[in-house]
Recover the amino acids of this structure.
């Protein structure tokens, strides 16, 4: 077959659906075969067809032409590629090594710049460095062109810089809320961020920063309906080439995963998760963790374990402890759900022994939820009770109850362990579990409702009906 089309097929499968839509909207092929090739490529990228649709009888040069056209167009509007070029030019200017060809390209870039361009701030700052370079060399004509640009857009630049600084201040509030250091209601910040995102005169970088922070707020509040219409608007900006880079689009799919998970549409969430991990970047481990969590929620534990294993080396060397601990926790969950509970408990024990300090600084609740589940499944009730005491989890759990993220999963499993070793009787267990249900807020527990109910059913067996729990009364997590 189509062995000769392998490279083209790989390229088609590597494309993201948003990239395919962008290419589809910009093609102007007059050649019917080239247009048909692009249409087939778009269908493959969207998952609407497989690579068998490519006709090996068509001139291979046309496949090569379409592939090159796609790559060139995507690269030309890739804001990350453009930023790298700007930084390269700035470095060459500051070290007095910029070539004539680069100068011509830079001047051309400056003259077609608008304040709404994604990298406007960097273009302006590069222009300032270049103005110094030209002035001292008595390059009057080019100096005047750059000077006029800087003068015309000085107010826009200062506004963009001011917005960027204020975004930093707003981010502090959002992160403090997430880490539970303080609570925030976002009554002022969210409308302001929304106004930035929809401001078509503002540079794209600041608009992207505003978008990311709004998603974070929605995540903190468990209220993705706050983003009504914004995902569609973001897609439109990418399709128009205003917010495009491979990094930005994969991040967009990762945020879409969180949105779909919040409305319990886990199949779409998983689909977006797989798109988000098509590109390996600095946030890859975060995307892997989110995808694994969704797959576990939908009973696709083997898939979850597979992607977690493929990223294990990356997790081992990760500097981001939040993502590293999350990866360990989801690996424990995946091992349990694939009937490897002993391995899961061993993995948890080794990890907590090595990274106790980091766990308690970042994601202790998620990690110990996974660890406790492994011990319950392995009937290691005494080990669970001992861990609860050694790590003072009762105190930490009590302090955590005021959080909007609170889940009763740890205390729930601790009470089950106490019952199994005979330290409390059935009425006492019943009282405790119903009390914990009362504490449950719109939380983000690591074990979803059905999981806790299932563990309780398994451990109590015939006594379960006496507790008076139903599948509608347990914890109700949002991923």
């Amino acid at each position: 077959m189509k062995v000769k089309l392998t490279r083209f097929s790989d390229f088609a499968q590597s494309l993201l659906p948003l990239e395919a839509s962008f290419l589809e909207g910009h093609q102007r092929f007059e050649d019917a075969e080239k247009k048909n090739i692009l249409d087939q490529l778009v269908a493959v990228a969207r998952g609407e067809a497989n690579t068998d649709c490519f006709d090996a009888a068509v001139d291979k040069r046309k496949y090569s032409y379409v592939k090159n056209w796609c790559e060139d167009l995507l690269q030309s509007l890739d804001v990350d590629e453009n930023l790298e070029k700007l930084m390269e030019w700035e470095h060459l200017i500051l070290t007095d090594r910029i070539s004539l060809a680069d100068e011509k390209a830079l001047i051309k870039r400056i003259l077609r710049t608008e304040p709404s361009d994604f990298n406007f701030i960097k273009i302006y700052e590069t222009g300032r460095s270049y103005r110094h370079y030209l002035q001292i060399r008595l390059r009057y004509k080019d100096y005047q062109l750059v000077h006029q640009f800087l003068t015309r857009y000085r107010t826009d630049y200062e506004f963009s810089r001011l917005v960027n600084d204020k975004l930093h201040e707003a981010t502090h509030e959002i992160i403090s809320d997430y880490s539970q250091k303080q609570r925030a209601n976002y009554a002022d910040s969210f409308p302001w961020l929304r106004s930035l995102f929809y401001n078509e005169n503002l540079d794209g970088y600041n608009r992207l920063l505003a978008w990311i922070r709004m998603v974070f707020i929605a995540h903190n509040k468990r209220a993705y309906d706050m983003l009504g219409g914004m995902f569609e608007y973001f897609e439109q900006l990418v399709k128009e080439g205003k917010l495009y880079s491979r990094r930005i689009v994969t991040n967009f799919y990762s945020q879409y995963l969180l949105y779909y998970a919040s409305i319990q549409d886990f199949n779409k969430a998983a689909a977006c998760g797989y798109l988000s991990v098509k590109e390996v970047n600095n946030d890859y481990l975060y995307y892997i963790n989110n995808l694994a969590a969704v797959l576990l929620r939908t009973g696709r534990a083997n898939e979850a374990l597979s992607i977690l294993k493929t990223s294990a080396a990356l997790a081992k060397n990760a500097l981001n402890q939040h993502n590293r601990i999350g990866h360990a926790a989801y690996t424990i969950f995946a091992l349990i759900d694939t009937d490897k509970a002993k391995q899961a408990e061993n993995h948890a024990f080794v990890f907590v022994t090595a990274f106790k300090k980091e766990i308690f600084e970042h994601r202790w609740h998620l990690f110990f939820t996974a660890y406790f589940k492994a011990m319950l499944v392995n009937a290691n009730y005494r080990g669970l009770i001992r861990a609860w005491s050694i790590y003072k989890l009762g105190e930490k759990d009590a302090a955590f109850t005021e959080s909007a993220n609170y889940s009763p999963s740890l205390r729930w499993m601790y009470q089950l362990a106490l019952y199994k070793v005979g330290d409390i009787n059935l009425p006492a267990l019943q009282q405790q579990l119903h009390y914990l249900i009362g504490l449950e807020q719109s939380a983000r527990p690591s074990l979803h409702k059905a999981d806790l109910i299932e563990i309780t059913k398994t451990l109590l067996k015939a006594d379960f009906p006496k507790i008076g729990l139903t599948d509608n009364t347990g914890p109700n997590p949002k991923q």
